[in-house]
Amino acid sequence: MPPTIIFKPASGDDFQVLVTALWSKKEEPDFNSQDKVRTLVEKDSQKLLPNTVEAKIVLQEIKGVNNTGYYFSVTDKAPNPGEYRYMTRGAIGVGNLLLNTTILHRIKESGSVKDALSMLREARQIVK
């Protein structure tokens, strides 16, 4: 399994940010290209659509340091007790990696979402 990094607040459970680093097993040069990332995020949004309040999911662009990614935000129709009502998901190419990200949050316009998206914009891959 690829590694997933989880960010949480120091106390409480207002949000969770999960970042999974993916790479091409076949060393495809366009594995994390803008077009492939958009297609991946679009397909992901369509799978979630039946369980969301939103009738249509609109992709947003995220301009990174070296690449462009996409994300969307949705509202769960019927979250179970304790589950997060809001989710923001997306992906962006960084170096030869694809950072697939899920942000779970309790407040719709959460500052944690803005911070997490900012972190993705600034992400860089350093190979030593």
Task: Summarize the entry for a quick read.
With about 130 residues, the chain is of the alpha+beta class.
Characterize the structure shown.
This protein is an alpha+beta fold and 128 residues long. The chain has one domain: Protein Transport Mog1p, Chain A, CATH 3.40.1000. It has two helices and six strands; from the N terminus they run ββαββββα. The protein has a six-stranded antiparallel β-sheet with strand order 1-2-6-5-4-3, with helices on both faces. A hairpin with a 4-residue loop joins strand 3 and strand 4. The protein is globular, with a radius of gyration of 15 Å. The two termini are 23 Å apart. The mean pLDDT is 94.
**By helix and strand content, what is the structural category?**
alpha+beta
- Care to count the β-strands? 6
Q: What Rg do the Cα atoms give?
A: 15 Å
Largest sheet entry: 6 strands, antiparallel
The CATH class is identified as: Alpha Beta
Overall mean pLDDT? 94
At CATH's second level, what is the architecture? 3-Layer(aba) Sandwich
What percentage of the residues does DSSP assign to strands (E)? 25-35%
CATH fold description: Protein Transport Mog1p, Chain A
Q: Give the helix proportion (percent range).
A: 10-25%
Instruction: Please tell me the total number of domains.
Output: 1
Shape assignment: globular
Low-confidence stretches: none
Number of distinct helices: 2
The largest beta-sheet arranges its strands as 1-2-6-5-4-3
N- to C-terminal distance? 23 Å
